[in-house]
Write a structure and sequence with these properties.
By secondary structure, this protein is α/β, with parallel strands linked by helices. It contains 12 helices and 7 strands. The protein has a 7-stranded mixed β-sheet, sandwiched between helices. It is globular and about 60 Å long.
């Protein structure tokens, strides 16, 4: 079976919702926090905690109104329908927050699409509403991502599956090592080139569908040797 996994911010979503959220409500402090993460001086969990803490006060209505200003990649919904017509499961793996991932999917008629993300609670603290993240899908041995995409990818697939991954950023670096077919754009392209990960460049999900259609119509799709070896190594270690 072919299975598709994809990132959300800047991938399934047309823009990086999380980045713009914190830039809007935390200002320059958000950029300082992200730089700490990009320079490996903070983990993904620390980064997200600090970004949330930097938002001094935000109501659920303000947050919802902000999120409602964002949409999906204009070809993503058609891509999901294309996959469903071929009985290909699609799962979103996000290192962002479930509040906006779920809300945007629902607003676009894809509320039933499975996704995994970090959890957000809005908590009253001394008269202010604070954003408090939690991390139900961490990996104790890897702190690069708050939501371990690799673990979802391996748990939700079998040894005989062909894994397709679509991404664009830092949190996608780990899972592409375990995927048979990789679609990359932006900074993920550079990583794939540096690590000799075979990839297809894309601009939007129309490109992904156009490239994937003839591939899945083949009678037999070969797994990427390096990806299969990487997956087996994880299972052997476990």
């Amino acid at each position: 079976m072919v299975r598709v996994f994809c990132d959300f911010d800047g991938t399934a979503a047309a823009e990086d919702v999380g980045n713009k959220l914190f830039r809007t409500f935390a200002g320059d402090r958000a950029q300082e926090i992200v730089q700490e993460y990009l320079q490996d001086r903070a983990t993904a969990r620390e980064c997200l905690r600090d970004e949330c803490a930097a938002v001094e006060n935000i109501t659920e209505q303000e947050l919802a109104s902000f999120v409602d200003g964002f949409g999906l990649d204009p070809f993503f919904k058609d891509f999901v329908q294309f996959c469903r017509s071929h009985e290909i499961p699609v799962t979103i793996l996000s290192d962002g927050l479930d509040f906006y991932v779920g809300r945007i999917l629902k607003a676009n008629g894809l509320g039933d699409l499975p996704f995994f993300a970090n959890h957000l609670d809005l908590v009253q603290v001394e008269g202010a509403t604070k954003m408090v993240p939690s991390f139900p899908y961490t990996d104790s041995e890897c702190e690069r991502c708050a939501n371990c995409k690799r673990n979802h990818l391996l748990t939700l697939s079998s040894d005989d599956d062909i894994i397709v991954y679509v991404g664009d950023g830092i949190s996608d670096r780990c899972p592409v090592r375990y995927a048979d077919i990789v679609f990359a754009k932006k900074r993920l392209i550079k990583y794939c080139q540096e690590q000799n990960v075979t990839y297809h460049e894309y601009r939007h999900f129309g490109d992904v569908q156009q490239r994937l259609d003839p591939i899945i119509r083949q009678k037999r799709i070969k797994p990427r040797r390096e990806a299969r070896m990487a997956r087996r190594e994880v299972f052997l270690q476990g």
